């Protein structure tokens, strides 16, 4: 399963070079970029950077805190946290190509000193106990069969009383998810849980749930607007099509239908270790 997931996202491409070449060929200067410039690809979860900021507001972080991003992808969430909370963030992701590109992008936007990205497994984190002041995971659990192990590991590496923010896609009551989706081309690597199952895993792992929220309607409206709005005259050429190729448009339509029919939900949990 881990190899299938890594292959799905990595797709055998040199992402760092592809992103750099696309930017330079479109006239962008790699030394004059901002973290928010990369939102179309490095915060391609529902509601983008705004959702990350909303999650961050409930994390109660202090400047200089040490934060873990589990399933960090291309690093957008980690960079937003580093930038907005003045925190030091370590990201862990199963896909080596994502980690390499995430470190490169952080260096391009002058956040390399506040972020670091490592290849690793969310169910077996390479850190000692009680190391982090906070942790987040954004649109990650959909690919993880053993969610309890993932949350137990998060609890283990957090300091007592630290907060854990989860923003994920979960199984809705409206029927089976439609594929392809960004996290899976078919059901073989899709591991959605219901909100009730997610709550149970978090409680079993030792967390206290402080807040939970269903944002499915907001996610549908956001994606609908994003899919129909005209493309800006000058925009970064780096989009989700770089990751998913010709299936990106089909994935968008499947997600719109899935959210509208509540086959899939977007859900947030704020927990305390």
Automatic annotation (TrEMBL):
InterPro entries: Erg6_SMT_methyltransf, Methyltransf_11, SAM-dependent_MTases_sf. Keywords: Methyltransferase, Transferase. It comes from the Bacteria. Residues 68-164 form the Methyltransferase type domain. The keyword Thylakoid does not apply. One of its GO terms (molecular function) is methyltransferase activity. GO terms for biological process: methylation. PANTHER family: GERANYL DIPHOSPHATE 2-C-METHYLTRANSFERASE (PTHR44068:SF11), ZGC:194242 (PTHR44068). This is Class I SAM-dependent methyltransferase. It comes from Aliiroseovarius salicola. The lineage of its organism: Bacteria, Pseudomonadati, Pseudomonadota, Alphaproteobacteria, Rhodobacterales.
């Amino acid at each position: 399963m881990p190899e299938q997931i890594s292959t799905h996202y990595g797709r055998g491409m040199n992402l760092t070079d592809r992103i750099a070449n696309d930017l330079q060929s479109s006239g962008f200067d790699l030394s004059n970029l901002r973290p928010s410039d990369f939102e179309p690809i490095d915060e391609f979860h529902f509601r983008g950077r705004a959702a990350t900021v909303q999650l961050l507001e409930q994390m109660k972080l202090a400047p200089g805190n040490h934060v873990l991003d589990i399933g960090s992808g291309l690093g957008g969430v980690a960079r937003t946290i580093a930038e907005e909370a003045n925190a030091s963030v370590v990201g862990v992701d199963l896909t080596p190509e994502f980690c390499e590109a995430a470190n490169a992008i952080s260096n391009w936007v002058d956040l390399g000193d506040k972020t670091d990205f490592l290849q690793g497994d969310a169910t077996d984190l390479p850190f000692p106990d009680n190391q982090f002041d906070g942790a987040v995971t954004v649109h990650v659990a959909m690919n993880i069969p053993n969610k309890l192990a993932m949350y137990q590991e998060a609890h283990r590496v957090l300091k007592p009383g630290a907060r854990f923010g989860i923003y994920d896609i979960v199984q809705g009551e409206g029927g089976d998810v439609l594929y392809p989706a960004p996290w899976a081309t078919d059901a073989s690597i899709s591991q959605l849980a219901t909100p009730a199952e997610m709550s149970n895993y978090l409680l079993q792992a030792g967390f206290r749930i402080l807040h939970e929220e269903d944002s499915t309607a907001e996610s549908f409206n956001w994606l609908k607007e994003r899919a129909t709005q005209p493309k800006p005259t000058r925009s970064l050429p780096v989009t989700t099509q770089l990751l998913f190729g010709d299936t990106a448009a089909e994935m968008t339509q499947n997600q719109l239908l899935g959210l509208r029919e509540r086959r899939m939900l977007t859900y947030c949990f704020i927990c305390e270790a």
